[in-house]
Amino acid sequence: KLTSLALQPVVTPVLVQGRVHLKCTYSRVSSKLPLQYVVVWSRLSTSGKKEQIQHDTTLQSFSYVEMNGINLRLGDTVFCTVTAFTRDTPEQQSLPEESKGFYAGIKFLPESLQIAEDGKEHILTILSTVPIACPRHDDSCKITLQLITEDLDSQFLGPPDIALSACQVDLLQGPCSESSCAEAKLTVTAVTDFAKDGNRVSRIRAEPVGREDLLWRAHTPRDVKVTVQDLPTGNCYSFTDPHIITFDGWHYDNYKIGTFLLCQSKLREFEVHVRQWDCGGHRSATACNCGVAAR
């Protein structure tokens, strides 16, 4: 019997005649015996079980399977299992060796986000693990993704708690390297809404647009779940003639006439100006708020 041969199969994406294929490569065994290889391709079903989709017997140290959008679609996790045997005595087989699962399709990195209402920008990468084919000889060597944000909490009727730096991104054709054949980046920021609405959960969806081929048109990438941590808001006051209470609870009065900078953030574009006029008459010098401007 043949022992374990350390075939070490690996699945990689390739373009063959302009169509997306997956290639299973494995180590050719240096043996005096003439060897053949059985390559079994399988995919994970929705129930988590492996379904066989192709069975090859070959003398080569590789095997191809086409992603045709029917029996093998984008969004599938694909495996190849390789067994070697001698041509003269097929019953002498090595132990089958299985590759790592290869996810074929578009995915987000990271796959989920936990952010806070602090104005910070968080980078989200969208990548395709398979190459972008060119169906025509024009500028269609790209995948355009429409990005959609949705609030997953049914008790909120307003817009989601997140904002994106772009509504559409393009994945352009390029060479594949390190599990990425095309990628784009955008930023995600929590909306600072000054409301005590608790921690809210939203999601980001990506939908391919403008593609005619079945492979991409039927692909729905996995969503990104974004949890937004609600931070406590602060209050400050300016009232009557005018008494001022700051965010940290300090009290003082300002009886001056004129326009003043009441509040300003050093981290973002946010400030409040107040205008005060003489409202005390001849008996006392008293000022009151008569106008306010906020950015």
TrEMBL record:
Please provide the record's keywords in A-Z order. Answer: Disulfide bond, Signal
**Pfam family name, one:** Ig_VWDE
Which interval of the chain is the signal sequence?
none
Q: Does the keyword Disulfide bond apply?
A: yes
* InterPro entries registered for this protein in UniProt: Dev_Signal_Modulators (IPR050969), Ig_VWDE (IPR057885), VWF_type-D (IPR001846)
Q: Report the gene name.
A: Vwde_1
Domain VWFD: where? 234-295
**Which chain regions cross the lipid bilayer?**
none
* Organism listed in the record: Ceuthmochares aereus
Protein name according to UniProt: VWDE protein
| Gene Ontology CC | cell surface; extracellular region
Q: Which GO terms describe its molecular function?
A: signaling receptor binding
